[in-house]
Amino acid sequence: MKTISIFNQKGGVGKTTTVVNLATALSKLGKKILVIDFDPQANTTTGLGLDKSKVEKSIYKMFYEEDSFENYIVKTEDGAYLIPSENALSGLEVELVSLDERERLTMLSSIIKEIGDDFDLIIIDCPPSLGLLSLNALVASDSIIIPIQTEYYALEGVSELMNTYKSIKSSVKEDLEIEGVLLCMFDGRCKLSYEVVEEVKSYFKSKVFKTMIPRNIKLAEAPSYGKSVIVYDEKSKGARAYLNLASELIENIKKESKEKENFKKKTKEKISEESKDYNQELRKDEKDKKLQKDEEKNQVIRNDEKNIG
Q: Ranges for the AAA domain (predicted)?
């Protein structure tokens, strides 16, 4: 099971839209997906068809109630599973401050460990800020997807975003990787969109997803109906883009898994070979020592015979 946070400390970049639609697309492709809405605004919760004002079992309550995690998970119409959020989650940040440093950063990790391997993938919607909630999400994650809008002001936030990522990686989560950078709100009629795409690709290189999310009216309409664009209008450009993204992500994860397996195999073979060489060297040393000992013993015997003679 892999855990991915959708993260950008800048708001309005397509973060929640990506969580809702990527989770739905992955579900449609046969994956069992759990979404954790860790944003107090709870837009992912409403985007997946729940009324946030009527949520009784939320991620916030999960921190305090002693109940089985299954009771907090909702199966959505869109196919994904969801642990919903509520506005009260914003108060958790204040409460976390009173805990020791390790505990305040690993509360969400503890919950995810309890869930275990019941899902193929967990997707976390982070708040659009770098507070303790976002840090909890990042510590609990294996990797992050960074949505970036293809507009001028997006470029201004890229260096700040990378400084944040490097800071987190060096001080909080050493093995946190960038799963990919997702270009959102692409307008093929606009020259600036192409310029931003090239700029982002020159910065992030192979980490940029091949799939780009276009500006699309159906993508904009779907949340008001509490649906993903895939359920709202599967034939729309927005729906097709997220289905393509889901396929690309699945292939990337398969490739990554294969590379890790090959690395483990090669490491195991190398250790085995080194162990074999070491044992051979050890046996040779033992043999040489025995020969030397026998020679010393024979020399003593020869000396004794010579003295007797």
A: 1-178
